[in-house]
Amino acid sequence: ADNGGGTAGVNKHMEFGIERTELSTLARGACVHWAPPGTNSKLVAQIVRQLPSVSKGKVLIAYGDPDAGEIGTIYQACGWTYIGTTNASKHEVLSPMGRVYNTATVGSWGRKRGISYKKMWAALQKDGWVAQASSPKHKYVAQLDRSDDRLAGVLRRMAKPYPKRAREAE
């Protein structure tokens, strides 16, 4: 978990009424296919239990990517609060091989080569790279500081019903 905004964005903490250093982002990968059932949710639950002892974070945020077939099942199983979706952004680029990158990565590649973002992007476009909008992601939060009643109220007001897969909703 990253403390201080991470992939959540530099001002994301403001909607919760907390300091930037009080928002942590859980960025996780999938478990291997042969892991025992429930491994993902057990690992996430363990992080939520242990993080307050090593961090001053009050809120942990995580995302589910519908493009990857995710609705946040793990976070639902752990009892996290669903707070809706992110806004779509124009901060992705698609390589000719079909891999998606964030535009910040393009900027990093340019800096490593001593050229501007604009020149780096122009070179990539010549090689067949294209810009694309990202899809909205599902947002889930876990309250780490259970003693903060004000924060609990904020999260309750933000709560929305859990998303369901299309076949479950019928």
How would you describe what is shown here?
InterPro entries: Mom (IPR057895). It holds the Pfam family Mom. The longest helix has 16 residues, at 39-54. This protein folds into two domains: 2-87 and 136-169, 3-Layer(aba) Sandwich (Aminopeptidase), CATH 3.40.630; 89-134, no CATH class. The chain is globular, with a radius of gyration of 18 Å. The chain contains six helices and eight strands; from the N terminus they run ββαβαβββααββαα. The model is unreliable at 2-7 (pLDDT under 50). Helix 3 crosses helix 4 (117-126). The protein has a five-stranded mixed sheet, covered by helices on one side. With 170 residues, it is α+β, with helices and mostly antiparallel strands.
Task: Give the tags.
single chain, 170 residues, alpha+beta, Aminopeptidase, 2 domains, three-stranded antiparallel sheet, 6 helices, 8 strands, globular, disordered N terminus, Mom
Summarize the structure.
With 170 residues, this protein is α+β, with helices and mostly antiparallel strands. The chain is 33% helix and 18% strand.
Helix and strand arrangement:
Layout: E1 2-3, E2 23-25, H1 39-54, E3 59-64, H2 73-77, E4 81-85, E5 92-94, E6 100-102, H3 103-113, H4 117-126, E7 130-132, E8 138-143, H5 149-158, H6 166-169
Parallel strand pairs: 2-3
Antiparallel strand pairs: 1-2, 3-8, 4-8, 5-6, 5-7
Helix pairs in contact: 3-4
Rg over alpha carbons: 18 Å
Widest beta sheet: strand line-up = 1-2-3-8-4
Instruction: Predict the CATH topology of the largest domain.
Output: Aminopeptidase
Secondary structure: helix percent: 25-40%
The CATH C-level name of the largest domain is Alpha Beta
Profile the largest sheet: 5 strands, mixed
How many DSSP helices? 6
Q: Give the percentage of residues in beta strands.
A: 15-25%
Low-confidence stretches: 2-7
Task: Give, in order, the helices and strands.
Answer: EEHEHEEEHHEEHH
CATH architecture of the largest domain: 3-Layer(aba) Sandwich
Shape verdict: globular
Helix/strand/pairing class, anyone?
Answer: alpha+beta
Gap between N and C termini? 35 Å
Assembly state: single chain
* Structural domain count: 2
Mean pLDDT level: 88
Please provide the count of β strands. Answer: 8
